[in-house]
Amino acid sequence: MELNKEQLKILVTGGAGFIGSAVIRYIIQNTQHGVLNVDKLTYAGNLESLTDIKQSTRYYFECVDICNRSALDRIFNQYQPNVIMHLAAESHVDRSIDTPADFMQTNIIGTYTLLEAARKYWLNLTEDKKQHFKFHHISTDEVYGDLHGTSKLFTETTPYAPSSPYSASKASSDHLVRAWQRTYGLPTIVTNCSNNYGCYQFPEKLIPLMILNALEEKPLPIYGKGEQIRDWLFVEDHARALYQVITQGKVGETYNIGGYSEKKNIDVVLMICQILDQLLPRKNGQPYHNLIAHVEDRPGHDKRYAIDAAKITKELGWKPQETFETGIYKTIQWYLNHLDWCKRIQDGSYQRERLGLTYHGN
Ligand code: NAD
Predict the structure, then answer these.
(1) Three-class SS of residue 111?
(2) Could you give the 3-state DSSP secondary structure of residue 196?
(3) What is the distance between the alpha carbons of residues 222 and 265, in angstroms, rounded to a whole number?
(4) Whether residue 116 lies in the annotated active site
């Protein structure tokens, strides 16, 4: 990657996923930095989410598993990154209950393998480059467990108490990253964020699932009574926060990132139904909420998550630009205007591009 001294070379893992692709679009469109996307392209990886920027001469792609140490060593040597933004993960809680092995492999072993490759590379840098190197690990508020029965918020010092195989694997990866900082001095930063929503989210997650099921006149399945409370953050606000963390964040610190927007799942779904009633009324004249179907709750389901994002606001000046009301409206409009992107996921054609994948870059 040929860049000048002011331009960072940012290695993003999981850049074909929902948040990773938002981060890459943000960096390529709003800065002069270069990005190398390292992604294995699991079912959740979709290069079509990067169509807007894939022609940029500052964007490169490598189809690589983060558990593959020799491939990572080659990539570090070849691209010489100054910043790592580690997002690659298995991320869907329901899948972690059905098939936990993939979560242990990628989220724990994959993070360990990446840390070791990064450490070896970092140790061989010149003193100046060593000092400016950063390893940013992107994690979730789910590591803190359940806030049921209290009005408290998660802060950066809340003890970890993960409930699901997903959150336990992410908690493990957070511990590994902090241990590599403390034991080896690797310059790391951890961020823990609340539920994201927005454009290009894989349709297995709550908000896109509800939008697409409603449009197809399918039931809108809600766990139990839908009383679970989550804090919601628009994905582009998260991407901006992550960029601020790599450019202004302090090594060794943790930053919680949240949307100041606690909502019950049932209220999120009712809001989606109301907006769809306005934008695209059902042919039978009935409201979309008639499609809601309550299903048996997920085992171990946490009742409430809520983030205190005061630290990142105070120290880095970040705060969300979207409210849930503006963000959900934009999200629904985006899905209505990108049904072709959704259809290619639903019929599996989005995965075809990867079969003959050969390109390294634009
Ligand atoms: P996602 O499932 O949409 O994307 C994950 C990406 O990682 C995919 O492109 C996939 O192909 C890639 N990947 C998976 N295993 C890999 C491997 N072994 N090697 C290389 N690439 C691999 O996930 P997301 O929602 O974009 O989440 C990204 C990160 O942010 C995750 O670490 C997640 O824990 C964290 N996070 C997500 C949320 C949320 O609401 N989605 C909230 C807080 C934190």
Answers:
(1) helix
(2) strand
(3) 8
(4) no
Q: What is the largest CA-CA distance in the chain?
A: 68
Which of 144, 166, 243, 255 is catalytic? The answer is 166
User: Are 43 and 10 in contact, with CB atoms under 8 Å apart?
Assistant: no
Homologous superfamily in CATH for domain 9-198+233-260+302-322+351-360: NAD(P)-binding Rossmann-like Domain (3.40.50.720)
d(CA 104, CA 97): 12
pLDDT digits (tens, 9 = 90+) for 224-237: 999 999 999 999 99
User: Apex CA 281: angle with CA 275 and CA 283, to 5°?
Assistant: 155
CA distance 175 to 171: 6
Which of 18, 64, 84 gets mutated to test ligand 1 (max ligand atoms within 8 A of its CB)? 18
Place of tokens 């008639």: 290
Rounded average pLDDT over 254-280 = 97
Tokens coding 196: 């994201």
Tokens of 156: 């950066």
- Give the CA radius of gyration of the chain: 20
> How many residues comprise the chain?
362
To the question of pTM greater than 0.90 for the whole model, the response is: yes
Ligand 1 contact via 142 beta carbon (within 6 Å): no
